[in-house]
Amino acid sequence: MSWSDLGLPEAPEPSGNEAPAPRPRREPKPPKPPKPPKPPREPRDRGDDGDGGSRTPLILGIIAGVLLVAVVVTLGIALTRPSSDANPTTPPTSDPASAAPTAQPTSTATSSPDEVGAPVALQFAGTGFTLVDANKKAVFTYQWRDKVDGAVAALTKAFGAAPTQRVEAGDGTSYPDYTIYQWDGFLLYDMVDGTGGAQRATFTQPSYATFSRTDVGEIRLTAEHGIAIGATVDAVRAARPDKEIPRGSAGSIRFVFDLARSKAGPPVQYSMVVDTDGTSVTAVLYYFAAGS
């Protein structure tokens, strides 16, 4: 019997796209009980390790083998080396023709006659003073109206020491102040321009010098007329000074040489003044001494 016999419509054919029927729900599994913790392992005793004990004989055997080989090689070399007496070696003879040439001495450089050496003396004259070397060549020259800075620098280098410095006051009207540069046994006076109503460019005595020793450092101080510190009064008189002036009651005497040479110049020139204690020379002064 079909659906149509019952007066009902035919059932539709399945298309294959119908949703499948739901599966029955599965019951969840009960949780597994936790595993008990593993007990810790016992530490191994290194003394029971059989590997270390087995390696020791092997190492000793290798060392013994190496030593044996070394002994054999040494004996072989000693037995096979020829005797030194059997085949003596003749030392090579030197060939005179091939000998190294004798070294020739090298020539040393000699100084030129025009070269100026280090100063050894300070020579005075009417126009100033000059530092000279051993060959009498001028190293530095100073004239009385020159700027004093160059002279101070040259003398400091020559004497090996810097001077002390002070100011000597003039009279305020006609005689100026002087800056004094003093070394042990030598003094250089330089006027302070404009003091005492004097101008350095025209004043008759812009600078002057005096010394009381034969040497300052390594430098010999040399005056004119052969006069030196310590010379006797008789030696000074023998040099024929222009003037002899007794000074004070102690018997000191001043001698003046080249009196007519003192003039304002140009260039400025001074006389040479020699002071004594009545017996010997104590100081030499280069000074404007006209009319003294």
- Largest beta sheet: strand ordering: 4-5-6-7-13-12-11-10
H/E topology pattern = HEEEHEEEEEEHEEEE
| Overall average residue pLDDT | 80
- Structural shape: elongated
Q: What is the overall number of helices?
A: 3
Q: Level of helix content?
A: 10-25%
Radius of gyration: 60 Å
Structural class label = alpha+beta
Task: Give the beta-strand count.
Answer: 13
Strand content: 15-25%
Largest sheet features: 8 strands, antiparallel
Contiguous runs where pLDDT drops below 50 for at least 5 residues? 84-88
- State the end-to-end distance: 183 Å
Oligomer: single chain
Structure description:
Strand 1 and strand 2 form a beta hairpin. This protein is α+β, with helices and mostly antiparallel strands and 292 residues long. It contains three helices and 13 strands. The strands form two sheets. An eight-stranded antiparallel beta sheet has the order 4-5-6-7-13-12-11-10. It has a five-stranded mixed beta sheet with strand order 3-2-1-9-8, covered by helices on one side.
